[in-house]
Every structure is written in C-alpha cells, then in structure tokens.
Amino acid sequence: MSITRELWLAIVVVVLVAIAGSVTIHGITTKQYVEEQLYSKNLDNASMLALTLSGLEKDPVSLDLFIMSQFDIGHYASIVLKDANGETISEHSHEVQLDENTPKWFADNFSPSVEQGVAQVSEGWGLYGTVYVETDTSFAVASMWRATNRLIFGLSLVGIFAGLTGAWALRLILTPLDAVVGQAESFREMKFVQLPEPRTLELKRVVKAMNFLARQSQKIMLEENTRLDLMRYKTQFDDESGVANRDYFISILKGQLAFRDTEGVNCLFFVRFTEGEGFLRSPAAIRKKRIRDFVGEINECLALHHHHFTDSRIARMQKNEFAILLTETHDAISISEAIHGACLSAFSSPGDPNVYQSVVKLRSTDSFSDTLMRADAMIDEAEMNNMEEPFMETSLREFISLVEQRRWEKELQRIIDEQDVETLNFPVLDINNALVHYQSWAAVNIDGELRKSGYYTHWARYLGLLPQLELTTISHLIENLEREQTDAKYAFLCSEQFILNQEVLAQLYYLIGTNPQAAKQLCFEVRESTATRFPQEFNLFCTTLKAKHCEIGLKRVGESFSQLLNVQEMGLNYVKIDSAFMTDIDYNPANHAFIRGFCSLAHTFGISVYADGVKQSNHQELFVELGIDGVVANMQVIGHSSSD
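^ that's the sequence the OP posted. Answer follows.
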C-alpha cells in the first residue's frame, strides 16, 4: 500500500474516531443531564399530586379517578398511590414505547434511568399514603436521537471539509515525495538526477543525501572523462593542431573501409600547404596559433556545411598536410570549394604559403594504403602544376543536374508512399555468444535492386526526406515484429535530421504508443557526434522513448563521449565503441588502456559496452579483460545470418 493511501486511511480513521467519540460523549452527557432533569420533574409532579390528593376526600374511587385523569393528560410511565400500610390504592402505568425512528441500540445504551418521584399524601394531621410518579422517557430518548443525528450530520460535514483540506495539504506535502521517489527510481536506472530541496525536514534530508550521491557520480564522471580524454589525447591527437594524428586517422580510415557501407559517397580530402620560408619555421607559439587558426577555419566550414555529409574526421598527416574524411557526402564539389576557400582565408596574408587540395572517393576494393596513395599522388600533381582549384577524381566532378535531383526525389517519395523498404539485421552478441539484439540497417528497392543506406542517404538528406524514410523503416520493423511474433530486440540508428524533426518525432511517439509490445523490443541509437552537437534534443529524445520502455544507445562512441552533458541522467542502456578503436586491437596497448577505462566508467552507470568493427572471433579473453560486454557481429566473425 502506498504512503498516500496509508495517510488517507489514517485521516479517515481519525475522523471516524472523532465522530464516534463525540457522539459517545454527547450521548453520555445528555443522558446524565436528562436523568437529572427528569428526576426533578418526577419530584415536582409527585409533590404537586400529593398536595392535591391531600385536599381531596379520601374515597378510593374518587382518588383513582383523579389519578387516572392526571395519568391520561400527562407524560407518565406510571403513577402509584399506596396507603400507609403499603397497600396499593390506585396504580396506572403503561409500557414505554420507543419512537419508530429511534434505533434499539441507541435506546439500550443511552436511555435515561430516572428514579421515581416520591411524595406523601396527608389526611388531616396524619399520613394517608405515598404517591410514586415516574415520567415516560420515550419522548426524551427520541429527542436525544434527533439531537444525535444532527450532531453526526454536522460532524460528518466537518469531517468531509477536514478530509478535503487534508487532501489538499497532503498533496502539497507529498508533492516533493513524488519527486523523491522519481529520483530514487532514476538511481535504480543509473540516472543520477538532482532535485531542489523541499521544505519538509525529513524529505529535505533524503533529497540532500541523494543529491550528494548524484553530485559525487557527476564528479566521478568528470574526473574519469578528464583522465580518459588526457590518455586518448596523448596517444591519438597532434598537440600542435589539436586534431587526430596520422596513426589514429589510419585506424579511422581502416574502420571506414572495412566495416562501413561502401555504397555511399565517402570522400577523402587532402589539404597541403607549402613550407618554404613560411610560418612553420617561426617560433613554436606563433606556429601553433597559425595551425590552430587554420584548423578552426576548416571546422567552421564543415559546421556550416554539415547537412552535406553524415560524419567528419580531421587529422594532421604531416606537418604541412591535413586529411578530412567525410561520409555519405552530397555535392563533393561544393564542399571541396568551401574547404579550399576556408584554407585560403586562413592563409591570406602576404608571405603565407600556397594551399593545394585533392579529393578522392573511397572505393569498396580500396585498402587504406590505396586510398592514401591515390590522394597523395593527386595532391603532388596539384602542387607540381600549381593548381588554384581543388583537384578531384573524375567520378566526383559531375555536377548535380535538376533532372537527376527530381528523379531521386520522385523515387524516394515512391519508396516512402509504398513502404518499399527492408532491413538488414546483424546480430549483436554478448561475451558468451548469446543474442543481445539485432543491428538493423535500412535498405530500399531502387530500380529492382536492394540498396543499402549509403547509396541513397546523401540524396534523402539533401532532399529533406531522410526523417520520413527512417520513420517508414521503423514502421516496417514494427510490422515485422508483430507478424513474426519474435522476442528478439532490434536496434535502429537515427540520423541527426530525424531527432530534429518534431513532426516526424510526434509520429514516431504515436506509432510506438499504439504498439506497446513492439516498443519493448526496439532500441534507438544516435551517433555520438549528433548527441554531442544537439544535447537538449537528444536528452528529450531519450526521456520520451525511455518512458515508452524503449532502449537507448549511442553509436560510434569514443571520440567525444566526454563532451556529453549529464550522461548519468540520460539512462543510456548501451554504447557501441567506434570501430577505429577496435582496429588492430591485438597490438595497440594505448587503445587497451582507453577501452578499459571507458568500460569501467560506463559500467559505473549501468551502461553496457559493445564493440563495433571486430575482425576476428578469438578475442573473448581480451574483451573480458577490457570489460567489453559484447560485439556487433558480421559475416566474417560469427556464423549468424546478416539479414532476415
């Protein structure tokens, strides 16, 4: 039973006890008062009757008639006249009849017990006899019952008013308690939220203690994040520029080529500036500032054009050479020109170096060395020919025609209208090879061929149809769950545009609300970069879906996890480490230390950690040591079907 019901029960019991006590005290007091008054009446009536009888002739018949007349006109239970020897001369009485509205239990407990009034009748100077008078109490009992009824009614009104007032006061007092209960439940879910302290002393002490625990958890998170960031920065970043170093970027590129969708337009941009007698030979502080300004211009450019790609990574490959990896790129020509303009803006002073750029598209048959060599050869050619414009591969130079744009718009709209979508499902397995959930990737039928998301995502994003297309895929996934009656869970990666589109989100929440069983089998994922860039929207997304019993996860985690605000309050179920950290996991001790610390931090808040981009299946002991809870499987790792 809840404390609210217990308090309500206590209020009802108190009110009932108060009413019962008041009625009892009133009944006993009234009974005593009536007994006193009726006894006085009996004495007065007996005295008056005796005085009258003393003046009459002592004819027994006459006396009996007189007494009978007095008995008939008065409210008497009995009148008895006895002579001096105790012999009855006249006796008139009747059985007391209770009013029909007076309950028997009330009469039995509260009827007044009144002594008879006694007076002596004289004859001359002598004693003739004694008269005994007893008043009829039925009228008094009926009157007492009516008074008691009025009292009960009045006290009931007071009780109802007190109950309503108590309910209002109880709600006011217990309002902080609901928040405290919610805070305690959030702690159970490893969401360490803080509350304002209530006025009630006991609740204030509880909230104060729990807020302290929440602050400590946040402190642990910040300290551990700082330590992990420092560790990662030392091993994976270039201190002078503040971006990824060559080794880390190669890991990212390997992961992109090995585990990402290669049907999309994924581009590598190489930027090189000439050394000469430029700022690279200047003092370290000046050189660092110029390099940071140069990187800042590129970052601002990418932020301005972020709707043209899904993810971006920047790295310093050599002291005068930078690489930029953009995934699912749309209109590479515009982006390359924008990047080139940003670089020229950074080096616009007299004596500044020249800037050259090459752009290549990642191919499904490429190794990381093939891609880098191709980009390097092209930028060498651009520098040798002193090209003032970006040097791009032929496949990327095609301008997007209006006809092509309309064709894609018509085709994608058809897919949405007809729900011509499929899902490719890869199992996520725990450390014991048991299924955790399926990682679902969207695929659509275009020109009679099933295409993965990379093939069409950049067009769908550019045309503003990506959120609706993802909603269509989720709807298809829910229909499959209902049709197949499976208990398996399915995870779906939501784009940045999806969580920012309020209309589509409203449709998603309605769809999930009307399918509560399917909601428990759905896991919604967001890229770490998206959650970092839009923390408020992501937090609202998490809160709403968690309330509908869905699971929430982060994908491609590792690079900016520390920048997420109040992770301990989001209630994340799991995270998936970026494949860049899993590349060459066998002989990369720096990654071991980072992953071990990251897993320890995540487990502190009840977050499971899964590894993405694992090439081999013989890492179980290593994963147990590092704290990894499972892996995202692929066809090369574990013999599970990659599609339904």
